[in-house]
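BUG-253 | component: ligand-complex export | severity: low

The export step for iron/sulfur cluster jobs runs without errors, but we want the raw record kept on the ticket for reference. Input record follows.
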Amino acid sequence: MFENKGFVHSIESLGTLDGPGIRTVVFFQGCPLRCKFCHNIDCAISNTNASSYTVDELFEKIIRNRPYWGSSGGITISGGDPVFQPKFLNLLLSKLKENQIHIAVDTSLYTTKNVIDQNFKLVDLWMVSIKHMDVAKHKDLTGISNKSIFENISYLDSQISKYKLNSKIRIRFVVIPDVTDQKNHIVEFSQFVSQIKNLELVELLAYSDIGKFKWLEIFGKYEMGKTRVANHDDLRKVQKLINGLYPEIKIKL
Ligand code: SF4
């Protein structure tokens, strides 16, 4: 990757699914994980044919949507995973912050403490996805260990508290039948999440096989083939389990 240029898979001008209000969502190209259930796998792989921008070029393009954001919207940096291009991410966040834009970052937080240190004062809402609590199962599901992810969530939370920032952490969790929704797993997940002091809410997302065709096209296989897609009842079941243990945790379905 070029130091001062970023690779962008796509831009959604007026998104309503990735953060509060109406938002312009910038999907960075590239991700260090390979989640078997990823529905954006074409965005997660490295692809130097993706559109490249300097920060100023990208800013000029996305700022045009400002009139539509209202008081509750803003910009979400998603992907792929934004932390896969840390230098460009920092330059873009700094530019957005200078312009007093509400910023959300959608990430696995599989990164270094240094990247968190450079960026934690710039972001209003961290949307961090937890894939699985168990190290071996996480590795099987995503290709990497979850150890540093949990350390980074706790570190980010402690920095937000230490500097008395108004930033929040939203935890995103994909409910996958018989893979992530077992009772003992939800208990473990809830315990971890309940300790996040700057938690905004937990967002439960239903596993869908919408990305299957991309997997088949790129890798010639889709390993989640035997897994049932999740429905609203699956989400309600997980919500009930979490709130049975921790009624104070706000949940978004
Ligand atoms: S972290 Fe997100 S973008 Fe990356 S592989 Fe997993 S689901 Fe896909």
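Assignee comment: Attached the raw record above. Strands lie at 5-15, 23-28, 51-54, 74-78, 103-107, 125-130, 168-175, 199-206, 251-252.
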